Amino acid sequence: MQSKVSILKKIDWSKYIVYIAFIVVFLFLSVWLGNRSFLSANNILNITRQTAMITIMAVAMTFVIGAAQIDLSIGSIVALSSLIAALTLRSTHSIFLALFLSLLAGFIIGAINGLLVTKVRIPAFLVTLGMMGIVRGSAMWLTNTAAISISNTTFNFIFGVGNIAGRIPVLLLWTLVFVVCGVILLNKTSFGKKTLATGGNEIAARFTGINTDRVKIITFMMSGTFAAFAGILYAGRMQAGRYTFGDSDEMNTIAAVILGGTSMAGGTGFVVGTLIGSLLMGMINNGLILGGLSVSQQTIVRGVIIILAVALSNITRKKAN
Predict the structure, then answer these.
(1) What pLDDT sits at residue 67?
(2) CA distance 144 to 105
(3) pLDDT tens across 164-191, in order?
(4) C or N: which end of the chain has fewer Cβ atoms within 10 Å?
């Protein structure tokens, strides 16, 4: 009996908080909203649609935070990339060119963030906060705040409203692709190990021969590129590009990563946990809407849940150590 208790004490429960919270919230919402179609297949699939963009950005953010950095510019990159895609499709009708230019914009913005953090030595919080304003303002200026509609049905199907076999949303498939790639990159490659080593102890990582500046730059480029792809998915789902897309997504993305078990201090990263954290946020949002709560009430509840989850995760992590 004592051995079982000692084993339980040695378990790092902070890694499993998000899974426990997911099950508890799911059961609670199932009981509370069971008669309001919460458990219907359509609603479950709708949750995956709503969380697809956040999940994809959160996969890259896992690497950024794992390297002890942060990126607040991703929401604005979403807006800019959606508008670039919409404008390119309107002018050229080329899906490939729309994808290339949108992803290139995110890649360049991420590279600039990384260079400013590593070469100019400006804290990531300040760099990306400033970049958020620059990019969001550029998105507004690009079209004078007007929305740009997308009439290309192929683009909209592949990157937004399409369903495979009549039921499976393409957004779910894109989510799985990015999550699988993120898991492999973080857990099975030297870059993933270098990222966590950089976040865990940068000085020690340098002494082992890791180019920590390069690692940081690559994580920021990943973040910008993934955010740009999320903007493409927004454009496909809404069949338009708008400067308002991605507003506050950076907070939801960071929350999903932290809920998934990644430490804000860096050195850890769990892509699967990030996926569950994103789905948990989406499930809570969906449940609160079905429950008839006002927007202000939903915001309060989400904030309380995030604080409680992170606090509980920190408490269990300290006990494990």
Answers:
(1) 96
(2) 19
(3) 887 899 999 999 999 999 999 999 999 9
(4) N
Q: In the chain, what are the domains? A: 12-320 (1.10.3470)
Q: Note whether 172 and 49 are within 8 A (CB).
A: yes
Q: What is the DSSP string of 136-155?
A: HHHHHHHHTT--EE---HHH
Taking CA atoms, 91 is separated from 85, 88, 95, 148, 235, in Å, by 10, 5, 11, 11, 16
Smallest CA-to-CA distance from 52 within 264, 238, 307, 185 is with 238
- Cβ atoms of 64 and 258 within 8 Å: the answer is no
| Residue type (1 letter), 195 | T
Distance of CA 14 to the CA centre of its chain: 20
CB distance 241 to 87 below 8 Å: yes
Is residue 84 within 8 A of residue 107, CB to CB? The reply is no
pLDDT band at 5 (very low <50, low <70, confident <90, very high): low
* pLDDT exceeds cutoff 80 at 119: yes
